[in-house]
Amino acid sequence: MSSIASRALCATVFLLGTFTTASALAHAHLKQQVPAADAQVTTTPQALTLNFSEGIEVKFSGVELTGPQQTRIPLGSVKLNEKDNTQLIVPVESALKPGEYQVDWHVVSVDGHKTQGQYHFSVK
C-alpha cells in the first residue's frame, strides 16, 4: 500500500509541476521587432513593428518612443496586424533625428497576462 501511495504522490507532484510550468510560460514575450534591437538605421522607420509569442489585446497594450535628451516622440495609434494578432504596428508620425531611441512597450495577451519591456535602436 505504501508503494501505491508513493506512486500516487509522485504522479500528483509531476502533474502539478507540469501545469504550473505551462501557466508560467503563458505570457506574451517579444520575439522580434523592426527596427531590430540595437540596430542602426539610416532613415526614419514608417512604423515600429513588434512580434510577440502569442495573441495581443490591443486595447490594453501600448508603445512609447523616447529619443535624444529623453524627448518623447509622437506615435500613431497602436494597431494589430489584421492577419496576425501577435503583431503590433505603431506608425512613427515624424522624422527621427540622428541619435539613440528607446522603445518601451506593454501588452496584455489574449489570456489576460501583462508583460512589458524595452529595447534600443539608433538613427544615423
Main β-sheet description: 5 strands, mixed
* Total separate domains: 1
Residue-averaged pLDDT = 88
Helix-and-strand structural type: alpha+beta
Percentage of residues in strands? 35-45%
Low-confidence runs of at least 5 consecutive residues: 20-24
Radius of gyration (Å): 20 Å
User: Can you identify the CATH class?
Assistant: Mainly Beta
Classify the fold: give the CATH topology.
Answer: Immunoglobulin-like
Distance separating the two termini: 73 Å
Number of DSSP E strands: 9
SSE arrangement, N to C: HEEEEEEEEE
Question: What is the count of helical runs?
Answer: 1
Record the strand order, biggest sheet: 2-9-8-4-5
Helix share, percent: 10-25%
Structural commentary:
The structure is a single chain. With about 120 residues, the chain is α+β, with helices and mostly antiparallel strands. It has a single domain (about 30-124), classed as Immunoglobulin-like, CATH 2.60.40.1220. Helices cover about 20% and strands about 40% of the residues. It is built from 1 helix and 9 strands. The protein has one helix at about 1-25, and strands at about 30-35, 40, 45-50, 60-65, 70-75, 80, 85-90, 100-110, 115-124. The strands form 2 sheets. Strands 2-9-8-4-5 form a 5-stranded mixed beta sheet, with no helix packed on it. Strand 8 (about 100-110) and strand 9 form a beta hairpin. The chain is elongated and about 70 Å long. The N and C termini lie far apart (about 75 Å). The model is unreliable at about 20-25 (pLDDT under 50).
